[in-house]
Amino acid sequence: MRTRICGTGSALPGREVTNDDLSRIMDTSDDWIRSRTGIGKRHLATEETLAGLAAAAARQALAEAEMKPEELDMILAATLSADKILPSLACELQRELGAVHAAAFDINAACSGFLFALQTADAYIQCGVCKNVLVVGGEILSKLMDWNDRSTCVLFGDGAGAAVVRADKEFGILGSVQGSDGTKGDALLCENRRNNNPYVKNDTALPYVSMDGQAIYKFAVRTVPKAVMEAVLKAGLAIEDIDLFLLHQANIRILEAVSRRLKAPMEKFPTNLESCGNISAGSVPVLLDYVNQKGMIQKGDKIVLAGFGAGLTWGASVLTW
Ligand code: ACO
């Protein structure tokens, strides 16, 4: 049995913020951001909640899959920026959708989150526990950014994407790899609340995301091609057999380096960095929905999905559409 993606969806907040908009509130420029990252604008949440964005994406994915929420066995939500610590985003989504038969939980693997959630869905389907799973990736990262730190806040955006997967005899996931290296976790960091109770007082300022950009760049260009290659081999395919590589949208230079290392042309690496920035766990499913809605994927195409990010973590899956 294979795990097949049979519907996708995405939702972005209404407020678009261009590089020029940012240059009016901090010392940056369209040229600096665009030339180093490929990002032209991003969507930032103002009134929107992550649960609301995720539910909008999920409804589109369910409609394309022609599946009712009650048919879902499981909801997996990949995020590091849920609206609430409790309940989880997945449980909020279950309530929003009325998916009364679904078990629901969140997965935090940062920018690899959608891949980790998809591979978890695949494992549940492979062992026969589930048939229909909703996999969502989404973030409202703007609330975790230090808007005085121009080296990080310009990179990220908000949004959510969803995929409905179901057990299928023929099409679906052919091979996957995933990995983590906790020893390098400080390269991309955001502390949680500090210990605070009657025995220890803590009134330090709220923590924000900090990043060693060059360490992340080196990690990505070394690890992603290797992971993609391993997943493609596991699938019994060669790089030339792959029609599209849908990679986490962190930075155009990373995508170009991966394309060179895999000896696969950039035309096979669609990107929405220009309009969305880096949406972490939302990045791959939002891009997947974009190429799906644009009709860029045909039935039977071989697709690579790959994520990489904080943890450090990485994951890649190869599938037949
Ligand atoms: N606008 C203008 N100048 C800036 C900005 C900005 N937004 N941010 C930093 N600078 C300045 C710095 O202060 C520095 O100035 P200085 O030389 O006077 O000290 C100069 O630009 C160069 O800074 P660097 O950090 O060395 O810039 P670099 O060329 O390394 O580019 C970047 C930074 C784009 C983040 C790069 O390291 C990179 O691509 N890293 C990959 C990491 C990444 O993509 N992370 C995304 C999140 S992680 C993930 O999704 C996996």
Please provide a brief summary of the model.
This protein has helices spanning 19-23, 30-37, 50-65, 89-97, 113-126, 150-153, 213-234, 252-262, 273-276, 283-293; strands at 2-11, 15-18, 41-44, 74-78, 103-107, 132-139, 159-168, 172-180, 188-189, 210-211, 244-247, 302-309, 313-320. The protein has 321 residues and is α/β, with parallel strands linked by helices.
Describe this structure in words.
The protein starts with a strand and ends with a strand. It is globular and about 55 Å long. The chain has helices at about 20-25, 30-35, 50-65, 90-95, 115-125, 150-155, 215-235, 250-260, 275, 285-295, and strands at about 1-10, 15-20, 40-45, 75-80, 105, 130-140, 160-170, 170-180, 190, 210, 245, 300-310, 315-320. The chain has about 325 residues and is α/β, with parallel strands linked by helices. The chain is built from 10 helices and 13 strands. A 5-stranded mixed sheet has the order 1-7-6-4-5, with helices on both faces. A 4-stranded mixed sheet has the order 8-13-12-11, sandwiched between helices. The structure holds acetyl coenzyme *A (ACO).
